[in-house]
Amino acid sequence: MKLPKIRWIGLMAAALLALTCGTGWNARQLETDNIHLRGSGNVAIIAEQVAEKFMREHPGTVVTVSSTGTMRGLKSLIDATCNVAMASADSDEAEEKRAKDNAVTLVGHVIGHDALVPIVHPGNSVSNLTKEQLRKIFAGEFVNWQQVGGADEAIIVLSHDGASGNYETWKDKVMQEGKIVTPKAQTMASGAMRDYVRQHPGAIGYLGLSYIDSATKTLAVDGITASQDNVKNGKFPIVRDLKLFTTQHTTAPINKFVDYFLAAEQGQIFVKQAGIIPVK
């Protein structure tokens, strides 16, 4: 018996849904060779430059880059609303569970070595803080710069969105011991944080290396500065890897772009220009 056209289309759609449900795979990934990256702003400012050069050399592929924060990028990758996630921290327990529930295998590719560095107003006399002092400042236990050898000035704590890799790294490497960043902290993106600190004498925040310029005053941590050598050899206390994440459902164009990002004479040039330690 010949099936009515509408019913036939419905059966085909149901069959496709049955094949894709529960696997974490989404048919949208096969509709185009284009590449969409979402995630960390620290990676995005490099990825935008890499993408521009890649598209000039591969005119058949369109690469788009969206800065959404590390955890949102990983969620998008698992949900198949992007095909590459940019990350400045490893996936957390929630995203690991989401990946497992969707039968998605996350594959990490380290594109550079970075650090999170405390920043303060250029007129702040403090030049070094211990991790314990940082922990107490960001937990709200120290509220005046006098408590760490500075001027009589109220401390203004700045932090990052909870979905960002910056926040996750700071929480893991600085807060520790179950402490959380004070709810009084002002939350803002990296560029806004850098500008705010320059304008407010009591402010303190933390940034990745790619957002630090000559007008930004950085602090040593436990007496160690975030020099290129100290980041590369891991002596600076707050270091991390910047990564691209793909899944087992990757495609040839995605693999080509990742390889391009990791090539010494291609993407790694932009990594180095951003102040990040290249992997090649």
Short description:
This protein is α/β, with parallel strands linked by helices. It has 10 helices and 12 strands.
Description:
- There is one protein chain.
- The protein is globular, with a radius of gyration of 22 Å.
- It contains 10 helices and 12 strands.
- The protein has 280 residues and is α/β, with parallel strands linked by helices.
- 38% of the residues are buried.
- It has helices spanning 5-20, 41-57, 70-78, 93-101, 131-138, 165-175, 190-199, 228-232, 252-262, 267-273; strands at 35-39, 63-67, 84-87, 106-120, 128-129, 156-159, 186-187, 203-208, 217-218, 220-221, 239-247, 277-278.
- The longest helix has 17 residues, at 41-57.
- Strands 1, 2, 3, 4, 6, 7, 8, 9, 11 and 12 form a 10-stranded mixed β-sheet that branches. The chain has a two-stranded parallel sheet with strand order 5-10.
- Strand 6 (156-159), helix 6 and strand 7 (186-187) form a beta-alpha-beta unit.
- Mean pLDDT is 89; it is low at 1-31.
Report the mean per-residue pLDDT as an integer: 89
Poorly predicted tracts of residues: 1-31
Name the overall outline.
globular
Query: What's the number of helices?
Result: 10
Please describe the topology of this protein.
Layout: H1 5-20, E1 35-39, H2 41-57, E2 63-67, H3 70-78, E3 84-87, H4 93-101, E4 106-120, E5 128-129, H5 131-138, E6 156-159, H6 165-175, E7 186-187, H7 190-199, E8 203-208, E9 217-218, E10 220-221, H8 228-232, E11 239-247, H9 252-262, H10 267-273, E12 277-278
Parallel strand pairs: 1-2, 1-3, 5-10, 6-7, 6-8
Antiparallel strand pairs: 3-11, 4-8, 4-9, 4-11, 4-12
